[in-house]
Design goal:
The chain is globular and about 50 Å long. It has seven helices and 16 strands. By secondary structure, the chain is an alpha+beta fold. The chain has two domains: about 120 residues, 2-Layer Sandwich (D-amino Acid Aminotransferase, Chain A, domain 1), CATH 3.30.470.10; about 150 residues, D-amino Acid Aminotransferase, subunit A, domain 2 (D-amino Acid Aminotransferase, Chain A, domain 2). The protein starts with a strand and ends with a helix. The strands form three sheets. A six-stranded antiparallel β-sheet has the order 2-1-6-5-3-4.
């Protein structure tokens, strides 16, 4: 069952050829992990969604409160018999139908879909074969728009195909300044000694909700130093660890980049601290 503007329907054909999210990528979305009816980091997701809508100059409906959208998400999960499970939810907001590049109206539409997720808490995958390389066919533009979760994901699609063609698990994206920005499906962290480094938002990386959680864990640990600074490709082979973050996987260690192999130590510690934080919340 899909929630389309509050109505539960059994088909995905509610989107027409005139839908602006389909035609122009004129849409923003949030990917949520929900565990037994609890939306993880819901406040962070909600405020990021509101900020993204403002940046996209969407008129936010008066009923788009945190409580309203949470209720719609839980209604969707209930309709799919997922309230007592872990689930992956996508909340998509677009400007409806009509217009060319300029919308005919500022009507806002939303849809919510859900699917089952196997793990309640985050589990570290220490597969010794998780390999990445750089994707250099196209580049991310530094700036505010690149930090949003919009439906404009051409570089992520092409990069995913490129990774599969070359037998890699993932690719790292570069911005137009040739700095490493993020992975195809999440933010990037680099560990050297006890310093944990991640690209700044000004480099064009996604303003990830899990990125924020990991930064908070690092800052509150008392054991590590956090650095938000540009990462050059040369630093990748000097690092002790590399890992990817998003709200579905938590932390995913990268095991190999070209001839460089990485250890899994601090990323494992951070994941334990993250799960502890979730249990206490």
């Amino acid at each position: 069952m899909i929630n389309f503007d509050g109505e539960l329907i059994e088909t995905s054909s509610f989107i027409t050829s005139e839908n602006r999210g389909y035609k122009y990528g004129d849409a923003v979305f949030e990917t949520l992990k929900v565990v037994h009816g609890k939306i993880l980091f819901w406040e962070d997701h909600y405020f990021r969604l509101m900020a993204s809508m403002r940046i996209m100059r969407m008129e936010i409906p008066m009923n788009f409160t945190m409580e309203f959208l949470e209720a719609e998400i839980l209604k969707t999960l209930d309709a799919n018999s997922l309230l007592k499970s872990s689930a992956r939810v996508r909340l998509n907001v677009d400007r409806g139908n009509g217009g060319k590049y300029k919308p005919k109206a500022q009507t806002i539409s939303y849809n919510i879909s859900a699917e089952i997720c196997n793990e309640d808490f985050y589990v570290l995958d220490k597969s010794d074969s998780y390999t990445v390389d750089l994707y250099k066919d196209y580049f991310v533009a530094p700036g505010l728009l690149s930090t949003l979760k919009t439906n404009n994901k051409a570089i992520n699609v092409l990069g995913s195909i490129y990774a599969e063609e070359n037998g890699w698990n993932n690719c790292l994206l570069l911005n137009t300044n040739k700095n490493v920005v993020e992975a195809l499906n999440g933010n990037l962290f680099l560990v050297t000694g006890e310093t944990i480094k991640t690209p700044p938002l000004t480099d064009g990386c996604l303003k990830g909700v899990m990125r924020k959680q990991i930064i908070d864990v690092v800052l509150n640990s008392g054991d590590y130093v956090l650095e938000e600074a540009s990462i050059s490709p040369f630093e990748l082979q000097k690092a002790d660890e590399l890992f990817i973050t998003n709200v579905m996987i938590g932390i995913l260690p990268i095991m190999k980049y070209r001839k460089k192999e990485y250890v899994v130590k601090i990323s494992e510690d951070l994941l334990k601290r993250l799960n502890t934080k979730l249990r206490l919340s």
